[in-house]
Amino acid sequence: MNFNTLFQIYAAVKDGYSPVVQAERLLFIPDTLSYMLTGKQICEYTIASTSQALNPRTLQWDGDLLAAAGVKGDILLEPTLPGCVIGKLNATLAVQTGIGEVDVVAVAGHDTASAVMAVPVEGENFAYLSSGTWSLMGIETRMPIITEESMHQNFTNEGGVEGTTRFLKNICGMWILEQCRKEWSLQGKEYSYPEIVAMAESAEPFQCFINPDDTLFANPESMLGAIESFCARTAQSAPKSDKQIVRTIFESLALRYRQVLEILESMAPFAIDTLHIIGGGAKNALLNQYTANATGKRVVAGPSEATAIGNIMMQAVGAGVVGSVAEARKIIRNSIATEEFTPQSSEAWNEAYSKFVTLK
User: Fold this and answer.
1) Catalytic residue among 31, 111, 213, 242
2) What confidence tens digit (pLDDT) does each residue in 342-354 have?
3) 0.90 exceeded by the pTM?
């Protein structure tokens, strides 16, 4: 992706941007925060893995890629796994905060890596959907999955806790609905989320569908107009009301989740029977039920604050208070309420999916 660190470095060097050209060391944002807290420089694995310059098999920097971008390999430190103690809180901050010179622990610096840490699962064979403005669907594996198919389907291998790989794909999430809400607001229509859910529930099912990941919906001047354009392009009647628009978005998201999950299953080294939904979208019970209906899978929703919980529990592991990630997940499972959804109306959703996959 063009915003990955490798391309940012290349563009900076090409433009002669002096902070990069003259730099002795490059720190990612989480590592910069750690440096400000401790005065110690590290390069945390999960955030490093999103740079596109880290070899996902060796977990070491690819010198050829960095050289092609125009920098020396030693500008980046050797990756450090989450859970290590970086150092003590510096004396000034120790006094200012009143907490003393406590240990500062490297957490999973990438927000999704911290969120996946908090999946309240037993065992390793699970799929997750980190659901918010954008959604990320994937699995946790011991080894990366690097094939022609994974490249063709645009899946990525990113770092996880305990040196695992998060094999995942980015999917549009609630972005489309949020942009519609902005337009409705300009029209003087302020819909709360409970009202939006009620609108979707009262609308006719399966009237039309959109592909949430179509480029039309990336950042249009009008999201409502983009929905109309997509329907016109695919020979469908556009939604005639606000409630029908919401229903179309929710149903289409659930169907897109099924499509990506089927692709994921075809490459996963294990069978997937449960989808864990974490993040803000875990609170959207209607979409979670639609997702169970569309995928035919058991869906477990929660925790909604997965990133913060995963961060805290990684600190607990690093401090030796909790023995392992598996133990941390057990604690989360026993402490945080989750909600389960089982598939309903399978025949109707299968028929809808057969129409959805034909949209181009």
Assistant:
1) 111
2) 999 999 999 999 9
3) yes
